[in-house]
Amino acid sequence: MITSRYAPSLRFLHWVIAALVALALISIEIKGWLPKGSSERALVKWAHTQFGLSVLLMMLVRLAVRVRHAVPSITPPPPRWQMHAAHLMHLALYVLTLAVPLLGVTMMFCAGKPWSFAGLSLPVTIAPDAALAHRIEDMHETAGNGLLWLAIAHAVAAIYHHVVQRDDTLLRMTGIGRRKGA
Question: What family classification does the UniProt entry report for this protein (predicted)?
Answer without folding.
Answer: Belongs to the cytochrome b561 family.
